[in-house]
Amino acid sequence: MTKRLLNRKTIIGAVSLLLFVLLFYLYIPNNTGAYTITVWNSALIYFMANIGTAIMLGSCGMVSFASPAFMGLGAYTSVYICMNYGVNPFITMLIGMLVSMLFAVLIGMALMRLNGTFFTFSTVALCQIAYTVYNGWKPVTGGPNGIPRVPQFTAFGWVAKTYFDNYYVLLTIAIIAFVLANRLGKTNFGRAMNSVRDNELVAKTTGINVFRTKVTAFAIAAGFAGIAGACLAHSTHYVVSTYFTYSNATMYIIQVMIGGVYNIVGVFAGTILITMLPEWLRPLQEYIKLVYGVGVILLMIFMPMGIWGLGSDFIKRIKKRYHIKDNVTPIGVLAEDQEVGK
Amino acid sequence: MNRPILELIDVNKAFGGVVVAEHVNLKLYPGEIHGLIGPNGAGKTTLLNLISGIYEMDSGRIELNGEDISNMPAYLRARKGIGRTFQMPRFLDKADIEENIRIADDLANPVSFLKSYFGKNDRAYVPRLNELTRIAGFSFNLEDDISSLTFGQRKMLEIIRAILANHKVLLVDEPAAGLNGAEIENEISLLKHAAKNMNMGILLIEHSMDMIMNICSNITVINFGSVIGNGTPDEIAANQDVIEAYLGRSKDA
After folding, report:
1. Fewer Cβ atoms within 10 Å of its own Cβ: the N or the C terminal residue of chain A?
2. With 50 as the cut, is the pLDDT of residue A341 above it?
3. In chain B, what residues touch A338 (CB-CB under 8 Å)?
4. Which chain B residues have a beta carbon less than 8 Å from that of A339?
5. How would DSSP label each residue in A48-75?
6. Residue A25 pLDDT > 80, yes or no?
């Protein structure tokens, strides 16, 4: 059996993680302006929320537009506790995340009785309801005026004063979220989600509680959205209902789909691409929606598996070209050696 | 051997006005391969769906090892030990073979989520999988896609998946349909291995009479949802009702 710790995959993974860390911790903050770094910040926040959407879509096979609703829940909970009780933002963010997950369990128990498209439409409705609440419940959420002067990240006397400080905090949280979510697919729960996605009948007949798996996936997605929403509030020092509209939800879904739903690295790429696109396309400002719309359609036609799909196809081609073989575990033997009719 | 592992007592089911199971009684013993035959549309697959919990029955009682499982949802019945295969093999199409096998291993050796999250990704099931695949007479790589297997191999992998899940009862739906002669031979060895060496009770739906007569120790015949014959292969071959159901009544009888 393969017990080698240092196989090629591990080495490639470790090296790319190291390069990633160097690039994102050292290169980007030192080579971008004060405005661009705020764009990076929002990209990192979207990425956290998109991890949840990708888990729902890629692992569990359900399209959910609910992430702004849970982002809002996480954000307002965190801000409320932080500003009224003076608790450290890092703690209130975790509370916001837990509250999101709790609500997701309760809501999920109702919504998961619906299948496929019906579930998707119900999450659209959920998103709209949540927005109405955030916009209307003025004493708590500040309504359309929002809540200004949300406390910034602080820990052990250190205070995140600039957007660059926020960048490091958000990057660290995003990496933690990435690592946590990446491992999820390799657990028994990850396999349960995949079987729910691919074949509910197989799931049931191998002892998987389909309903519970779906509700749990929904809660996990809400947890990622909740922490993202809380990050959004504390890093922009402001929280307002328009952060959590339905149009944001469609943008998140597009980011996830463009990246590639089956891999979180792909989700990251898609999120960065879509968030950065308006910046890169600034010369075309007036036509940006047009370019964006046509671009999304073309991407979906020519690379339905997203950036990750394109990347893995490319890697496969390289491997074939240079005759690199994957480590495989052969099972069974050839037909000649079998014991026929025992 | 004298206590049935699975017992159906007076099971009834109707879809609207169409009766698909009527007063069905059936006993399945551990280590036995029990044939379930009948003309097309007789209600064989429906009965499997009732046993595995995919359909709810209207009335009656299903006991697994003496325990009443009549009102359990499908996934709990699977955890209690009822496994099944499908007429058209069903897998997780977007996952590789390893993941498809591991869902069975997860059922056989349940671990907590945290242990699975932080623990090592061990492959303790590989030796057994190897043995079973050798009996089934084909080979593959764990990392391959399901689509790289032929139809026959997929049907056998479904049985292997169910065996790896350590089920007590295995419901097999038309395993030989679409397979060639050599594959059927291998499949028979696989089923015999499951019954003899693992003491599974196997309920087998099959249209190939050769296979049924060859490997079943008991046969139940159903038609229009009700049992019309029950006995050893020899008794069934001589049973007048069964002959009628299959061949029709002769004019001057």
Report:
1. N
2. no
3. 134-135, 137, 186
4. 134-135, 189
5. HHHHHHHIIIIIS------HHHHHHHHH
6. yes
B38 in a structural domain = yes
Report residue B207 as tokens: 């249209």
Question: What domain range is A199 assigned to?
Answer: 32-258
3-class secondary-structure state, position B15? strand
* Chain B residues within an 8 Å CB radius of A179: none
Residue A338 lies in a domain: no
pLDDT digits (tens, 9 = 90+) for A92-136: 999 999 999 999 999 999 999 998 899 999 999 999 999 999 999
Phi-psi region of B188 (alpha: psi -120 to 50; beta: other; left: phi over 0): alpha
Distance CA A223, CA A17 (A): 24
Question: Which amino acid, one-letter code, is at A176?
Answer: I
pLDDT for A6 equals 61
Between the alpha carbon of residue A153 and those of residues A71, A162, A335, B195, the distances in Å are 18, 10, 64, 63
Candidate from B83, B91, B113 with C-beta closest to A187: B113
Distance CA B46, CA A93 (A): 51
CA dist., res. A186 & res. A175, Å (int): 18
| Pairwise CA distance, residues A226 & A101, whole Å | 8
Give tens-digit pLDDT for A192-224. 999 999 999 999 999 999 999 999 999 999 999
Chain B residue with CA closest to A335: the answer is B137
Which chain B positions have a beta carbon within 8 Å of A209's beta carbon? 73, 75
Is A142 among the domain residues? Answer: yes
Identify all chain B residues contacting A260, using CB atoms and an 8 Å cutoff.
none
**Domain containing B137: what range?**
6-247
Task: Return d(Cα A335, Cα A332) in angstroms, integer.
Answer: 9
**Token pair 């879904």 in the structure block, residue:** A253
Test mutation, A3, A182, A206, A215, chain B, max B CBs within 10 A: A206
Question: Count of domains in chain B?
Answer: 1
Give chain A's contact residues with B (Cβ, < 8 Å). Answer: 1, 183-184, 186-189, 191-192, 194-195, 197-199, 201-210, 262, 326-335, 337-342
Tokens linked to A174: 């995003």
Cα–chain-centroid distance for residue A233? 17
Tally of domains within chain A:
1
The encoded tokens of residue A119 equal: 């579930």
